[in-house]
Amino acid sequence: MRSIAGLSVLALDDSNRRRTLALYLLARVAQCAYNSAKSKNKFHLWGSYWRHGDSLLFSLACAQVMYSFVMRPESLPKSYQDFIQKTGPVAKPVYKAVRDCCRGGPVDVAYISAYLSSRGKLNDVKLEEFPSIIPCSIIHPDTDSCLGHNAKAASATFRKTFPLYFSLTFVPFVVLHLQKFMDSPARTCWLALKGAVRSTSFLSAFVGIFQGVICVHRKIASKDHKLVFWVAGALSALSVLLEKKARRGELALYVLPRAGDSLWYILVNRHLLPDVKNAEVALFCACMGGIMYYLEYEPDTMAPFLRGLIRRFLASRISNPNPPTSRSASYTYLQTLDAMNKPKLEESKQAESSSLEKLNLESISGL
After folding, report:
1. Its domain of life (predicted)?
2. Cα–Cα distance between 19 and 9 in angstroms, integer?
3. Within a 13 Å sphere around the CA of 117, how many CA atoms are in the beta-carbon half?
4. Can you tell me the distance from the alpha carbon of 174 to that of 314, in angstroms, rounded to the nearest whole number?
5. Chain mean pLDDT for the chain
6. How far, in whole angstroms, is CA 108 from its chain's centroid?
7. What are phi and psi of 154, to 5 degrees?
């Protein structure tokens, strides 16, 4: 019955959105199932007791996402592509040239020339139709220093994303802890500011490390390779160590479904997996049933934030295990009437028992 409710996902016409939601639920169900099995000593992954296992999972997920962004951008949603593009310092024509170069095809010289001309650097760069590698002079034409470019990219990312992270940090503080905010607004603002600076520093370091790995590869290699971007994504994800320990696992579970979605698309496109129609609907239903099962029977296996979120918005017996406090008027009247009649019944019983005792005493001969 829990899984049947998952059919409501059919209200979304876009199959890509349905697949994204299904994969997000799949990641949460996998987390619950793993925590359940681990708590019962039935199963645990090798390295699961590592202190930075969540960072390793985040690194693998980011590697797939960044590889897909450079080499297979069509496997990512348009909004996700736009976010990465706006956050990073490299222009779209450069990524296209890198993609064509890695695939061994001809580079669109006219397209890249128009981009360099708009930056005023056309005469400083030698363009080839079949280059072995796209040089740093095309990747960052505004500066000749790779180190200066990476530092500038990190600082620009900080300035662009700080307002977003501050709002994402401040609003939950106010909405979920309104009483604490009313009691000490200055402390709440300080905690939100500190969290926003920490998260923005993480994302800025991510961008700087990714660009740094790309530049280092161009200094020591003469031929481009698509796996470089996978390695760059994995290494840049180590910046997640700047985040709080509790947030690292949440970030990993946020990026993991996107990485799985991209990998799913690539494998289907290469005919390594069958393209089953409405497979995402069946997956969503199964995962919804799993989520509600763990919420009812093993709530401790769920992330506290997810458990609280479901119980906050689902007014049901599952999400609110305590007995309901609001009853109908007739039910309240009957309960009150029973409470009033109960002492009278007890008194009558006591009177009966005492009279029986008297009768029994009087019936005994000699008394």
Report:
1. Eukaryota
2. 10
3. 7
4. 21
5. 80
6. 37
7. -65, -45
Asked if residue 318 has pLDDT above 60, the reply is: no
Q: What is the 3-state secondary structure (H, E, C) of the chain?
A: CCCHHHHHHHHCCCHHHHHHHHHHHHHHHHHHHHHHHHHCCCCCCCCCCCCCHHHHHHHHHHHHHHHHHHHCHHHCCHHHHHHHHHHCCCCHHHHHHHHHHHCCCCCCHHHHHHHHHHCCCHHHCCCCCCCCCCCHHHHCCCCCCHHHHHHHHHHHHHHHHHHHHHHHHHHHHHHHCHHHHHHCHHHHHHHHHHHHHHHHHHHHHHHHHHHHHHHHHHHHCCCCCCHHHHHHHHHHHHHHHHCCHHHHHHHHHHHHHHHHHHHHHHHHHCCCCCCCCCHHHHHHHHHHHHHHHHHHHCHHHCCHHHHHHHHHHCCCCCCCCCCCCCCCHHHHHHHHHHHHHHHHHHHHHHHHHHHHHHHHHHCCCCC
Q: CA nearest 211: which of 157, 284, 250, 267?
A: 157
Instruction: Please report the pLDDT score of residue 246 as a whole number.
Output: 81
Tens of pLDDT, residue by residue over 341-354, are 555 445 554 554 54
Candidates 356, 98, 62, 116; CA nearest to 233 is 62
d(CA 248, CA 255): 11
